[in-house]
Write a structure and sequence with these properties.
By secondary structure, the protein is of the alpha/beta class. It contains 9 helices and 8 strands. The strands form 2 sheets. The chain has a 5-stranded parallel sheet, sandwiched between helices. Strands 6-5-7 form a 3-stranded antiparallel sheet. β5 and β6 form a beta hairpin. α1 packs across α9 and α2 packs across α3. The protein binds BIS(adenosine)-5'-pentaphosphate (AP5), magnesium ion and zinc ion.
């Protein structure tokens, strides 16, 4: 199974990917996470990407596509892939088709998380993650069971993303509307787009996705 989770910043791509990894043993390929790891490690890619990400703009198609290619090469052929935050431009969508063919995979579903943009700023500015294992939380919508302690690993250290401020979020949304939303019609023409109500609560969104995956 190979699926794309498509939706604007804060739509719930990362949240739902984490569940699919837990429930189905799929692998999450998040270009955002890969780029943040590169920034942290101060690799050449990370050094190039940092300022672009801090502004909320898109990193080059070549950089992110190379990251995806390397991940696919490292995966076993039977592990399902969840593309989270890739592709994000028409060029990336074309490259992904080539990469899937190269790695002997085919796209099953493009799951569009349909959300109301006004709610996204609140989702993003309230987001935090475990500094140790990366588990995702939210000040209002997804608190750890015990306050200040990660459900998954017990760590008490959390962090917030530098691009999760209102100004940068607005730029990220504009980038989505201008460059990413236009890739949908191409997938619609192939009959593989499944739309999910991303405004429902996290468990309800997960149930809708489960129903699609069958
Ligand atoms: P990336 O990391 O992909 O960020 P994004 O697309 O802006 O998406 P987010 O991670 O912010 O949102 P999400 O949909 O994962 O939401 P989440 O599940 O966390 O990219 C960052 C940057 O990297 C880009 O700006 C760009 O510079 C660069 N980049 C990455 N990929 C690239 C590419 N392919 N090409 C070029 N550049 C690239 O949920 C958000 C919060 O809401 C959480 O706190 C969660 O708990 C909560 N929440 C989730 N679902 C619900 C719900 N149903 N109800 C209530 N709360 C919810
Ligand atoms: Mg994410
Ligand atoms: Zn943790």
């Amino acid at each position: 199974m190979n699926i794309i989770l498509l939706g604007p910043p804060g739509a719930g791509k990362g949240t739902q990917s984490a569940r699919l990894v837990d429930h189905y043993g799929m692998r999450q390929l998040s270009t955002g996470d890969m780029l943040r790891a590169a920034v942290k490690a101060q690799t050449p890619v990370g050094l190039k990407a940092k300022a672009v990400m801090d502004r909320g703009e898109l990193v080059s198609d070549e950089i992110v596509s190379e990251l995806i290619d390397a991940e696919l090469a490292a995966m076993g052929p039977d592990t399902g892939a969840i593309f989270d935050g890739y592709p994000r431009t028409e060029a990336q969508a074309e490259i992904l088709d080539q990469l899937l063919e190269k790695h002997g995979r085919a796209l099953d579903h493009v799951i569009e998380l349909d959300v109301d943009e006004d709610a996204l700023v609140e989702r993003i500015t309230g987001r935090f993650t475990c500094a140790n294992c990366g588990a995702g939380y939210h000040d209002t919508f997804q608190q750890p069971t015990v306050e200040g302690v990660c459900d998954k690993c017990g760590s008490t250290e959390f962090k917030r993303r530098p691009d999760d401020n209102e100004e940068t979020v607005r730029t990220r949304m504009q980038e989505y509307r201008a460059k990413t939303a236009p890739i949908l019609p191409g997938y619609e023409a192939r009959g593989i787009v499944r739309r999910v109500d991303g405004m429902a609560d996290i468990d309800a969104v997960a149930a809708s996705i489960d129903a699609i995956l069958g």
